Automatic annotation (TrEMBL):
CDD domains according to UniProt: OAT_like
The entry's keywords: Aminotransferase, Pyridoxal phosphate, Transferase
Gene3D superfamilies: Aspartate Aminotransferase, domain 1, Type I PLP-dependent aspartate aminotransferase-like (Major domain)
GO molecular function, one term: transaminase activity
Lineage: superkingdom: Bacteria
Pfam families assigned to the protein according to its UniProt record, in alphabetical order: Aminotran_3 (PF00202)
Cofactor(s) the protein needs: pyridoxal 5'-phosphate
Similarity comment: family membership: Belongs to the class-III pyridoxal-phosphate-dependent aminotransferase family.
Name this polypeptide is given: Aspartate aminotransferase family protein
SUPFAM superfamilies found in the cross-reference section: PLP-dependent transferases (SSF53383)
Length: 462
């Protein structure tokens, strides 16, 4: 091959994908995919679907961990990216003020009218890092509060406000931060009274396990924080941009006006890494308080033209296709149809969430036969039953879902917002078939559970 030819490269070496990962990248990923039988070769994608090498269609209920808010390859976003490349812009000169970041900031802020300014970075975790730094600098205080089980990203600052030991262990020392139970206002106040708290970072719906904040909690927390001169930071990296049926999930509750709001994932339509931290004017004015502090918080790739063009296209599509209302409507439909199954299946305990962010929780069955099997799995590792559901959903029904965090018997659905009622039917039918199998003997399914038990024991030892 002479020169660079992407198509030829993929044609020649695409078949080595799993070996290349095993050899040069995180080797546990191909290992995990082989174990689950998820080691497919996906070749093409559009909207909420992708296709494997045999032409089999899959329904995507994961949206690339939420980045594919509009589904894959939305024609408007794609066109915007072609256009921005074809325009040969003088991007990232770093000593000018290009129009696209200003336009995207203006558009984003129109959805959060109480906020004034935006910092653009390159990921969700960077949006959170920015918020933590800004909160600390603006208040002059070191400590940040967060919720148990929270997830805000995996760089060191964001890791400091991660509520799971599994992510934190071995990476200490982290920042001086303290966890409070979600909904525990007394604990929040106790920490605030110590006078060293810069802010409280919270997901309006916690991604792990899909737990919405209790009604009234965000508003009450905001009042407490402001009384103690600390900031409310809403992490909308997963919940933002319409997913929960409001543009931002904090807007579900009247009177909530976070001081800082973190956005990423779906903002660029899944094409270009992007992150944004929205905030109040006084916070930005403090951080950038003089001309010699102009670069005190900055990022080389921040505000790049591709990310900004994609962001503008995404927000335009969301308006044109009324995707926030669509997410609310289809989310209500999917949730209510799944919730209606609870009485039929003793292993199915709860269906919760808002809009198209839905958690399906499994729990201890009542009948004797099932209880034995359930107990066997629980003794080996919590979360295996949910994995046993995710696997046939993909293998037999060609629907991609995920278990919502380690050691949890919860499946999380975060599909592209563009799914249709037909997709809701398809998911509910497939899920019903898997539940039937789990409850009516389902030898194959429980055999696979035993395989997982063996695997997890081996992993545990290794
Ligand atoms: C609520 C929340 N915050 C932050 C992040 C981190 O985003 P990223 O993976 O882009 O760094 C995530 C990612 O899943 C998230 O769900």
């Amino acid at each position: 091959m002479t020169g660079f030819d992407l198509s030829a490269l993929l044609a020649e070496r695409g078949g080595e994908r799993y070996e290349l990962h095993a050899r040069h990248l995180n080797h546990q990923l191909p290992r995990m995919l082989h174990t689950l039988g998820f080691d497919r070769v996906y070749e093409r994608a559009e909207g909420a679907y992708f296709w494997d090498a045999d032409g089999q269609e899959y329904l995507d209920m994961l949206a690339g961990f939420g980045v594919m808010g509009l589904g894959r390859h939305h024609p408007v976003v794609r066109q915007a990216l072609h256009d921005v490349l074809d325009a040969s812009l003088a991007d990232l000169t770093r000593f000018d003020c290009p129009p696209l970041p200003g336009l995207l900031a203006e558009k984003l802020l129109s959805h959060a009218p109480h906020l004034d300014r935006v910092f653009f970075g390159n990921s969700g975790t960077e949006a959170v890092e920015t918020a933590l730094k800004f909160a600390r600098y603006a208040t002059g205080r070191p400590r940040v509060l967060y919720c148990t089980h929270a997830f805000h990203g995996l760089t060191t600052g964001a890791l400091s406000v991660n509520g799971e030991d599994g992510f934190r262990d071995g990476f200490a020392p982290l920042l001086p931060d303290t966890a409070v139970e979600m909904g525990d206002l007394a604990a929040l106040e106790r920490e605030l009274k110590r006078g060293d708290v810069a802010g409280f970072v919270v997901e309006p719906i916690q991604g792990k396990g899909v737990h919405p904040t209790p009604p009234g909690f965000l508003r009450a927390a905001q009042e407490l924080l402001h009384r103690h001169k600390a900031l409310l930071i809403a992490d909308e990296v997963q919940t933002g941009l319409g997913r929960t049926g409001d543009f931002f999930a904090y807007q579900h509750e009247d009177g909530v006006e976070p001081d800082l709001v973190c956005v990423a994932k779906a903002l660029s339509g899944g094409y270009v890494p992007v992150g944004a931290t929205l905030g109040k004017d006084w916070i930005f004015k403090k951080v950038y308080s003089s001309m010699d502090r102009v670069l005190v918080h900055s990022a080389s790739f921040g505000s790049n033209a591709q990310a900004m063009a994609a962001g503008l296209a995404v927000l335009s599509v969301m308006e044109d296709e009324q995707l926030v209302a669509h997410a609310r409507h289809l989310g209500d439909l999917l949730r209510s149809r799944l919730a209606a199954l609870i009485g039929d299946y003793e292993l199915l305990h709860d269906v919760r969430g808002r809009g198209l962010m839905i958690g399906i929780e499994f729990g201890r069955p009542t009948s004797l036969g099932l209880r034995g099997r359930w107990t066997m799995l629980q003794a080996a590792r919590k979360g295996l039953f949910a994995q046993m559901v995710v696997v046939p959903l993909l293998q037999r029904h060609h629907i991609l879902t995920q278990v919502s965090g380690d050691h949890l018997e919860v499946i999380k659905l975060i599909p592209p917002l563009v799914i249709t009622e037909r997709d809701v039917d398809r998911f509910v039918e497939a899920f019903t078939a898997v539940m039937d199998e789990a409850h009516n003997g389902g030898g194959l399914m429980w055999d696979f559970g035993r395989t997982l038990v063996k695997q997890s024991l081996q992993t545990g030892r290794g």
